[in-house]
UniProtKB/TrEMBL annotation:
The name this protein goes by in its record: Uncharacterized protein
Native organism taxonomy: Bacteria, Bacillati, Actinomycetota, Actinomycetes, Frankiales
Gene3D superfamilies, per the entry: 3.30.70.120
Domain of life of the native organism: Bacteria
Recorded family membership: Belongs to the UPF0166 family.
Cited SUPFAM superfamilies: GlnB-like
Transmembrane segments: none
Amino acid sequence: MTRLAGRALRLTVFVGDSDQWHHRPLSSEIVRRARAAGLAGATVFHGVEGYGASSVVHTTRLLSMSEDLPVVVVIIDEEPRVRAFLPQLDELVGEGLVVLDEVEAVRYTGRPAG
Protein backbone atom coordinates (compact mmCIF):
# COMPACT_ATOMS: atom_id res chain seq x y z
CA MET A 1 0.00 0.00 0.00
CA THR A 2 1.26 3.45 -0.90
CA ARG A 3 1.84 5.81 2.00
CA LEU A 4 1.34 9.52 1.62
CA ALA A 5 1.91 12.14 4.30
CA GLY A 6 3.11 15.72 4.31
CA ARG A 7 4.06 17.63 1.19
CA ALA A 8 2.57 16.33 -2.03
CA LEU A 9 1.61 17.49 -5.49
CA ARG A 10 -1.94 17.62 -6.84
CA LEU A 11 -2.26 17.05 -10.56
CA THR A 12 -5.57 18.25 -11.99
CA VAL A 13 -6.52 17.48 -15.59
CA PHE A 14 -9.50 19.28 -17.17
CA VAL A 15 -10.88 17.57 -20.29
CA GLY A 16 -14.24 17.00 -21.94
CA ASP A 17 -16.58 14.07 -21.41
CA SER A 18 -16.48 13.24 -25.12
CA ASP A 19 -12.65 13.12 -25.26
CA GLN A 20 -11.52 9.63 -26.23
CA TRP A 21 -8.34 7.56 -26.26
CA HIS A 22 -8.60 4.56 -28.60
CA HIS A 23 -12.42 4.45 -28.31
CA ARG A 24 -12.39 4.69 -24.49
CA PRO A 25 -13.09 7.73 -22.31
CA LEU A 26 -9.91 9.75 -21.89
CA SER A 27 -10.52 10.14 -18.16
CA SER A 28 -10.61 6.34 -17.78
CA GLU A 29 -7.31 6.00 -19.61
CA ILE A 30 -5.69 8.62 -17.38
CA VAL A 31 -6.87 6.73 -14.27
CA ARG A 32 -5.72 3.40 -15.73
CA ARG A 33 -2.25 4.79 -16.44
CA ALA A 34 -2.02 6.49 -13.04
CA ARG A 35 -2.75 3.17 -11.36
CA ALA A 36 -0.23 1.37 -13.58
CA ALA A 37 2.35 4.01 -12.63
CA GLY A 38 1.71 3.28 -8.95
CA LEU A 39 0.40 6.74 -8.10
CA ALA A 40 -1.37 7.06 -4.75
CA GLY A 41 -4.84 7.61 -6.20
CA ALA A 42 -6.97 9.24 -8.85
CA THR A 43 -10.55 10.55 -8.85
CA VAL A 44 -12.74 11.62 -11.76
CA PHE A 45 -15.32 14.38 -11.27
CA HIS A 46 -18.05 15.04 -13.83
CA GLY A 47 -19.11 18.67 -14.17
CA VAL A 48 -22.55 20.01 -14.95
CA GLU A 49 -21.41 23.19 -16.65
CA GLY A 50 -18.23 24.84 -17.87
CA TYR A 51 -16.18 26.27 -20.70
CA GLY A 52 -12.54 26.23 -21.67
CA ALA A 53 -10.17 27.74 -24.20
CA SER A 54 -12.82 27.67 -26.94
CA SER A 55 -15.21 29.76 -24.75
CA VAL A 56 -18.11 27.46 -25.69
CA VAL A 57 -20.31 26.87 -22.65
CA HIS A 58 -21.29 23.23 -22.12
CA THR A 59 -24.18 22.72 -19.72
CA THR A 60 -26.76 20.14 -18.70
CA ARG A 61 -29.42 22.88 -18.76
CA LEU A 62 -29.65 23.03 -22.55
CA LEU A 63 -30.14 19.74 -24.33
CA SER A 64 -28.24 20.90 -27.39
CA MET A 65 -25.23 21.92 -25.28
CA SER A 66 -25.18 18.87 -22.99
CA GLU A 67 -22.51 17.13 -25.03
CA ASP A 68 -18.87 17.23 -23.95
CA LEU A 69 -19.51 18.25 -20.35
CA PRO A 70 -16.44 19.04 -18.24
CA VAL A 71 -14.51 16.20 -16.62
CA VAL A 72 -11.77 16.70 -14.04
CA VAL A 73 -9.23 14.04 -13.06
CA VAL A 74 -7.39 14.68 -9.78
CA ILE A 75 -4.26 12.76 -8.81
CA ILE A 76 -2.23 13.37 -5.64
CA ASP A 77 1.16 11.87 -4.82
CA GLU A 78 4.73 12.83 -3.99
CA GLU A 79 6.18 15.42 -6.35
CA PRO A 80 8.76 13.21 -8.13
CA ARG A 81 6.13 10.54 -8.87
CA VAL A 82 3.64 13.08 -10.25
CA ARG A 83 6.27 14.81 -12.38
CA ALA A 84 7.38 11.43 -13.78
CA PHE A 85 3.77 10.88 -14.91
CA LEU A 86 3.51 14.17 -16.87
CA PRO A 87 4.98 12.79 -20.14
CA GLN A 88 2.07 10.34 -20.34
CA LEU A 89 -0.34 13.28 -20.20
CA ASP A 90 1.57 14.94 -23.05
CA GLU A 91 0.69 11.87 -25.11
CA LEU A 92 -2.95 11.67 -23.98
CA VAL A 93 -4.28 15.22 -23.62
CA GLY A 94 -4.68 17.00 -26.95
CA GLU A 95 -7.15 19.62 -25.70
CA GLY A 96 -7.60 20.56 -22.08
CA LEU A 97 -5.77 22.00 -19.11
CA VAL A 98 -3.22 20.38 -16.79
CA VAL A 99 -2.49 22.08 -13.46
CA LEU A 100 -0.08 21.29 -10.61
CA ASP A 101 -0.58 22.51 -7.03
CA GLU A 102 1.47 21.93 -3.91
CA VAL A 103 -0.69 20.38 -1.19
CA GLU A 104 -0.27 18.82 2.22
CA ALA A 105 -1.57 15.29 2.72
CA VAL A 106 -3.07 15.16 6.20
CA ARG A 107 -4.64 11.70 6.09
CA TYR A 108 -4.40 8.91 3.53
CA THR A 109 -5.84 5.55 4.57
CA GLY A 110 -7.39 2.69 2.67
CA ARG A 111 -9.92 0.03 3.55
CA PRO A 112 -8.69 -3.06 5.36
CA ALA A 113 -8.05 -6.03 3.05
CA GLY A 114 -10.83 -8.60 2.89
